[in-house]
Design goal:
By secondary structure, this protein is of the alpha+beta class. The protein has helices spanning about 15-25, 110-140, and strands spanning about 1-10, 35-40, 50-55, 60-70, 70-80, 80-90, 95-105.
């Protein structure tokens, strides 16, 4: 199993605003500048899936596998011989709102998919977190 986690604390941002942007999957391109599109039909609930199309790669189907309302969600992308889990979490602290992103890749071909996909995803997490928070500030302040 391969894991990478990134956390950052932001001040002056509401947990509810970040949660709203996370659950608005069809508008992820507003804070994910590396996506052509992200489309989900139906509700943000466990078992539902969405299609995500990076600018430099084919579209993938991603399933929501865990949701704790207002706190965290995990999605899963299935590749041939591997799975990538992406957990997005919120925690209110004395210092501010802590956003944490954890990527986990499992499976026999995990090393291939880490090289092809997961490491790039992990490398863009800090910029995407900042963009998400900046969008929330612009939209909800």
């Amino acid at each position: 199993m391969w894991t990478q986690t990134h956390s950052k604390i932001y001040q002056g941002i509401k947990k509810e605003d970040i949660w709203h942007l996370w659950t608005d999957v069809n508008n992820w391109t507003a804070w994910h500048d590396d996506l052509d599109y992200c489309k989900m039909e139906g509700e943000f609930r466990v078992g539902n899936h969405f299609r995500l199309k990076p600018k430099s790669a084919p579209a993938v189907k991603i399933e929501l596998v865990e949701i704790i309302e207002g706190q965290k969600f995990t999605d899963c992308t299935k590749f041939f011989g591997a799975k990538m889990y992406d957990t997005h979490a919120l925690e209110e602290t004395k210092e501010g709102l802590c956003l944490t992103n954890t990527l986990v890749v499992t499976g026999l071909l995990k090393l291939l998919w880490i090289k092809l996909v997961a490491q790039n995803v992990a490398d863009t997490v800090p910029q995407e977190m900042d963009a998400l928070v900046n969008l929330a500030r612009a939209k909800y302040d």
